[in-house]
Amino acid sequence: MPGEGGKREEVKLLGVWDSPFVNRVQIVLNLKGICYEYVEEDLHNKGELLLASNPVHKKVPVLIHNSNAIPESQVIVQYIDEAWSGHGPRVLPADPLERATARFWAAFVDDKVGSPWFTILFARKTEEKMEAAVRAVSAMETLEGAFRDCSTGKPFFGGDGIGFVDVVLGSYLGWFVVIEKMIGVKLMDAARTPNLAAWVKRFRMEDAVKGVLPEDVDKVLEFLQTFLD
Ligand SMILES: N[C@@H](CCC(=O)N[C@@H](CS)C(=O)NCC(=O)O)C(=O)O
User: Which domain of life is it from (predicted)?
Assistant: First the structure.
C-alpha cells in the first residue's frame, strides 16, 4: 500500500490462523483498511524470518513494516494505531487517562483471561483446567463491570466503535466456544455477564472481525492436538 510519500510500503504479518494474538492484529489491520501480506507460520518448524524477527520470544505475531520487525500483539496493535494514525478509526483513545484505562484493562485481559486460557489448553490434569476456568469466569465478571464503566452506555469498550480492549478480549471469543466443548464450562454466560454477552454479538458482527476468528471447533481441537502429542 502507498505510504506517506506515495512509496509502496511493506506490511507483512507472520501468524498462525487460530492464535488470538494474531487475530487481534488482523482485526486492527482490517479496521484501519491496511493491505498486508499474511504469512502462515509452522510453529513445529519455525521459519528463518520468524526466528530472525522475534529472536527473544520466537512467537507469532510479528508485524514487519518496511523491514522493521515489531513483535508482541498488544505492542503491534498500538504501533499500527500510531503508524497509520490517518487511516480509519483510532483504536486507542486520544485522551491520556482513557488511554491508560484501556491499557490497564487490555493487560488485565491477557493476564487474567489469557493465562487461564493457556492452562485450560495445555495442563495435563483436568483439575488444573477446571481451576483455571474458575479464574477465567471470575475475570469475566470483573470485565462486566469494566465494560459498564468504559462503554458508558455505548456498544463497545471503545465507545461507538471497536477499541483496544474490544480487540484484545474479542480475539479470545472463538476459543471460548472451543473451551466449552473441551471442558463443558461456558466462560461467557448471559446469566452471569449479560452486558458482555450482548457485546459478543455486536463484536462478531463487525466487518473487521468477520472471517478472522476461528469458527470450526473440531478443526481447532485437531490443530491443538498436534501441540499436545
Ligand atoms: N504475548 C505474546 C503471546 C504470543 C504467543 O503466545 N504466540 C504463540 C501462538 S498463540 C506462539 O507463537 N507460540 C510459539 C511458541 O511458544 O514457541 C503476544 O501477545 O503476542
Answer: Eukaryota
